[in-house]
Design goal:
- Helices cover 40% and strands 31% of the residues.
- It is an alpha+beta fold.
- The chain folds into 2 domains: 28 residues; 123 residues, VirB8 protein (Nuclear Transport Factor 2, Chain: A), CATH 3.10.450.230.
- Strands 1-2-3-4-5 form a 5-stranded antiparallel β-sheet, covered by helices on one side.
- β4 and β5 form a beta hairpin.
Length: 182
């Protein structure tokens, strides 16, 4: 009889432990989403990391890095508000050529017109193309952007073409020219 009670107690403990493990495992699976975040596709490690012995094309890597730099620069350059003044430009100064830095510093010194109503601009890239690439020297991009202008009581959306030139200056890739065209 004593032996049967011990077997029943052990069985209850094992079943209880199994249930606890099952529930714990279910909670963890619910915590980690199987779906990619923000609708992005999952990236397989094979797509990111080259196989052993496979060489990374340095030219392709450099172009890729320049596209990322151009994209980030355009969005930051075109996004600002009355409250922030020209903080967006000040944050980008270290990514600008000496020529563009001089032009931007003049704009910052002049400041924004006093007494203006609140406004804000948010720029988003729709597409960006590398038009010309001279390795180690220059990259020219054309981007299509959407700029949302917000003022009290109204919001307007405009579309622009942005021409951007990146050059290598003092061993670093920097933006030399940027022009928003309607």
């Amino acid at each position: 009889m004593k032996k049967n009670i011990i077997i029943i107690i052990v069985a209850i403990i094992l079943v209880g432990g199994g249930v606890v493990l099952f529930l714990f495992n279910q909670e963890r699976e619910g915590f980690i989403s199987e779906e990619p975040v923000n609708g992005q596709e999952e990236i397989d490690d094979d797509d990111v990391m080259p196989d052993e012995g496979e060489q990374i094309d340095p030219l392709a890597a450099e172009k890729s890095q320049l596209i990322i730099q151009a994209r980030a620069f355009i969005e930051r350059y075109g996004s600002y508000s009355l409250d922030s003044g020209y903080q967006n430009l000040q944050e980008l100064l270290d990514q600008m050529s000496k020529k563009l830095t001089a032009e931007v510093l003049i704009k910052i010194e002049q400041g924004m017109e006093p007494g203006q109503d609140f406004f804000a601009f948010v720029t988003k890239i729709g597409s960006i193309e590398l038009e010309e690439f001279i390795p180690g020297s220059q990259a020219i991009f054309t981007a299509r952007v959407q700029q949302q202008e917000m003022r009290p009581g109204e919001t307007n959306i405009s579309y622009y073409t942005v021409d951007l030139s990146i050059i290598k200056e003092d061993g670093q890739w920097v933006v030399d020219e940027i022009e928003f065209k309607q």
